[in-house]
Amino acid sequence: MVAIAKSSFAQYSQDALRFSTTQPGSTARIKAIGNANVAVGGDLTSVSGNPAGLGFFTRSEISVTPEYDMFKSKGDYLGTTTNDSKNTGNLNNAAAVFYSRLNTARGADKSQGWLSLNFGLGFSRTNDFYNNSTYGGNNTLSSITDYYADRANSSGTDLLADWAYGHKLIDLYNNNGNEAYASNVIIDNNSTALQRNVITRTGGQSEFNLALGANYSNKFYIGGSLGIATIRYNSSQVFTESGDVSLREGTTDVTRGFQSAFVQDQVTRGTGANIKLGMIYKPVEALRLGFNFTSPTWYNMEDTYRESLSTNITGDNSYRNNETYALNYDLRTPLKVAGGIAYFFKNYGFITGDVEYVDYSSAKLMTNDSYDASFDNGNIRTFYKGAVNTRLGAEARLGKFAYLRGGYNIFGNPMRDNGSTIKTASGGLGFRSGHYSLDATYLHSTGSNTFYPYEIGDASPSATLRNTSDNLYLTLSYRF
After folding, report:
1. What is the arithmetic mean of pLDDT over 295-305?
2. Is there a contact between 19 and 331 (Cβ–Cβ < 8 Å)?
3. pLDDT (tens digit, 9 = 90+) per residue, 232-257?
């Protein structure tokens, strides 16, 4: 649901943003309180979030969190609204912490000094790419073939423009002695371009974390973790257009109907690593102050991109071309810093909030022998900016075994222009008895972005995609 604008055609600057907009993997309990985890501690989210929170554990614990996601998209394009949806299920989080009390000298105060050093490990899903989006309508002002013509005029060796010329979608015309490529598609009062773009995405990002958290005098908690991150991203875009073309046959021009499809398929795999450092301090028993630092994630990426153009012209021929490109490159995502505060009401619950800052313009793609990253890095600095993410939540104790939770999360807009914030409201229930606990959470997110199917200067058509996501999480935990 991240807001990504500008051209849909392959630009790795867009992927740099897409793969930088991760959130901490967490249990249903933390999901319910707006994912605010920096200062709370004592939850298995600490393995992938603020590792200092591991210092609060006084018993070992293991948990698993499956999720069910319902994604809906509404596309507004040229006065036409189109709806699409996608439902999926995944494993969101699985973690374990192992409590280890540190030995103290005989007769020493067992509430002072280093009291425990706890080890945690876990898997968490930090980004979800599963969604379907569709938009379309009648374009009375332009055709995607205008984009092909612009590419032909700006570069003499453009493969897509060569295909469009061979498919008779564009042609070379002489205008007062000046030769230039132009579209053959007829756009007038009697003929328009019927356009439709279908976007299908699958995959996600995940992390495997190894973490340590220590407790000093039940006052100061410190921790660190190593994260091994993976990316699995698949995208398919099919842009279709139909209408009429004017073709030169001998000395006359004839009008024929056509239908053309431009297809882009992308498969990206990545592996990277990062570290997290955190602390939580209790100036008084009821108050917790937290800080968390997440280093950039350094990824090695393998990308396969395939594009094809197919055209059918009534009374003429069918044409088809395709090409596949493979690229290996390195990506550095931005670092993140977050602060949090939590206040506990004895026997009643707590309220908490986090503020996180991410400078998306600091993401960087690395140049190598087969890829010059200067253009994409320029786009990153031009189009992206720093953003503040805020998370608020509360938990109320209901009797001896039950808990009621609610939260709100605002994911800041990373775009200088267009884009939007992502707003999430969540709520949940929890039950704890003996060694077991069960937590359930419902989460509702909304956001929008502006999408440009092709760019032809100021006349570029745009679609507004309004996205809604409804997610269900269930965590089962066992303490031992």
Report:
1. 97
2. yes
3. 999 999 999 999 999 987 778 899 99
